[in-house]
């Protein structure tokens, strides 16, 4: 099994699950292998180089791509030549939630996701590869993600968290470990062939409740400060000067009070998808280190 984007938060949970399920796992990355290989064999490889990929002479049955889906359609022919007959790829429900955003970059992202899903299906069908596309909602894994854990880092530094309005927008945070389990369950299930699935979390909560649970997971009493929309947009614009926040959008103001919910019933029916409720708690190595940055490095 080839895992692309294995150094991601989903990859952290996926690799040992595949190994436990008796797969021989090859993790491909442009970066050096992490200190903890998670049971996989790591290969440093630029997948955009078709000759380099072909020269490996790997014989592969399946691929799970955790990398941006936009890169995958161009790789399918090379992967088919290496014997791939099964692909699971990750897109995002942002395909729908950002399609009408006031931010042109977000609208472009949504359009790119849609085009990439369609292109993957077309080339995979042409090469006889069974494909599945997973569209998760808000993905988190305490200490690894750059969404929910970013809120936790803010709280740890400043002791409060700003919200515009009531923060009534509904969310369905989904744990990266549940997405990893979904991959292992779906890879051998024929009902998932040539099908796309929205993968949401195990419960629906408001944005405000999500933030309150993060406070409690950090052992802190919730301290939420309501701020005017204009002030929040100014703060976002200022934060975007920093590289790690350059992707922040002023549309966060609107989304805090906008529902972003999806039904995962088809996934439950076809491969037993059963995600957990939202629970942000640091444990083990993450508890001792606070909330580290994403990636395998500690």
Task: Describe the structure in your own words.
With 298 residues, the chain is an alpha/beta fold. Helices cover 38% and strands 16% of the residues. It is built from twelve helices and 13 strands. The protein has helices spanning 9-20, 50-55, 76-81, 94-97, 104-126, 148-158, 176-186, 207-217, 229-239, 252-255, 265-271, 284-289; strands at residues 2-4, 26-29, 41-44, 62-65, 86-90, 130-136, 139-140, 161-164, 170-171, 174-175, 195-199, 205-206, 224-227. Strands 3-2-1-4-5-6-11 form a seven-stranded parallel beta sheet, sandwiched between helices. A two-stranded parallel ribbon has the order 7-10. The protein has a two-stranded parallel ribbon with strand order 8-13. Helix 1 (9-20) links the parallel strand 1 (2-4) and strand 2 (26-29). Helix 1 (9-20) crosses helix 7. The longest helix has 23 residues, at 104-126. It is globular, with a radius of gyration of 20 Å. The two termini are 26 Å apart. The model is unreliable at 284-298 (pLDDT under 50).
Main structural class? alpha/beta
Strand order of the largest sheet: 3-2-1-4-5-6-11
Please tell me what the overall shape is: globular
Helical fraction: 25-40%
Radius of gyration: 20 Å
């Amino acid at each position: 099994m080839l895992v692309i984007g294995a150094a991601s938060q989903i990859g952290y949970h996926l690799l040992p699950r595949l190994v436990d399920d008796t797969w021989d796992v090859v993790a491909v990355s442009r970066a050096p292998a992490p200190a903890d290989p998670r049971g996989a064999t790591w290969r440093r490889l630029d997948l955009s180089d078709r000759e380099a990929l072909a020269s490996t002479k790997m014989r592969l049955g399946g691929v799970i791509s955790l990398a941006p889906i936009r890169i995958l359609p161009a790789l399918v022919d090379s992967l088919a030549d290496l014997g791939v007959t099964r692909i699971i790829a990750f897109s995002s429900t942002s395909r729908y939630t950002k399609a009408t955003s006031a931010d042109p970059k977000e609208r472009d992202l949504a359009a790119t996701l849609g085009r990439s899903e369609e292109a993957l299906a077309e080339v995979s069908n042409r090469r006889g590869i069974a494909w599945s596309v997973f569209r998760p909602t808000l993905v988190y894994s305490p200490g690894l993600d750059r969404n929910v854990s970013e809120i936790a880092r803010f709280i740890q530094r400043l002791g409060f968290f700003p919200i515009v309005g009531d923060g009534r927008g509904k969310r369905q945070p989904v744990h990266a470990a549940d997405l990893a389990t979904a991959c292992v369950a779906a890879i051998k299930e024929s009902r998932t062939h040539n099908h796309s699935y929205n993968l949401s979390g195990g419960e629906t909560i408001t944005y405000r409740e999500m933030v309150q649970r993060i406070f409690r997971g950090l052992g802190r009493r919730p301290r939420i400060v309501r701020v005017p929309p204009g002030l929040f947009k100014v703060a976002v614009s200022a934060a975007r000067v920093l590289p790690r926040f350059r992707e922040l959008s002023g549309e966060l103001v609107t989304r805090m009070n906008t529902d972003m919910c999806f039904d995962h019933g088809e996934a439950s029916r076809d491969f037993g998808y059963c995600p957990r409720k939202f629970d942000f708690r640091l444990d083990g190595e993450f508890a001792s280190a606070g909330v580290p940055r994403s990636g395998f490095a500690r």
